[in-house]
Amino acid sequence: AYTMLSGDLTDCVTGRFDLITANIVADVIIRLCRKAAEYLNPGGRFIASGIIESREPEVLTALAGAGLSVTTRKEREGWLCFSCSRLS
Q1: What's the confidence (pLDDT) of residue 9?
Q2: Of the candidates 20, 8, 13, the residue with the CA atom closest to the CA atom of residue 63
Q3: pLDDT tens digits for 4-56?
């Protein structure tokens, strides 16, 4: 069984989750990193995509600052997707 929510993570979420996804621009992903880390279960994944390659350094800095570690990086035609896990 699973629960799916749509909308701004910071507006409608309580609890912890095994998977959180965000397919949107880098600015929003940067803003959501800390909240995503807070809402992840141990062993959970945060998948962030829709990141243009030139914004990669900023997004990686924000993910690391939120305690998230990139476990997989995918690139396609200049767009990036990161799969991340929580460090602690």
Answers
A1: 63
A2: 20
A3: 777 676 677 788 989 999 999 999 999 999 999 999 998 899 999 999 999 99
| 3-state SS assignment for residue 46 | strand
The total number of residues shown for the chain amounts to 88
Dump strand ranges (E) for 1-67.
17-23, 40-52
HSE-CB for 38 with a 13 A CA cutoff: 10
Within 10 angstroms of residue 37's Cβ, the number of other Cβ atoms is 21
Q: Are 67 and 87 in contact (CB under 8 A)?
A: yes
Among 42, 50, 48, smallest CA distance to 9 is for 48
Of 17, 64, 69, nearest to 38 by C-alpha is 17
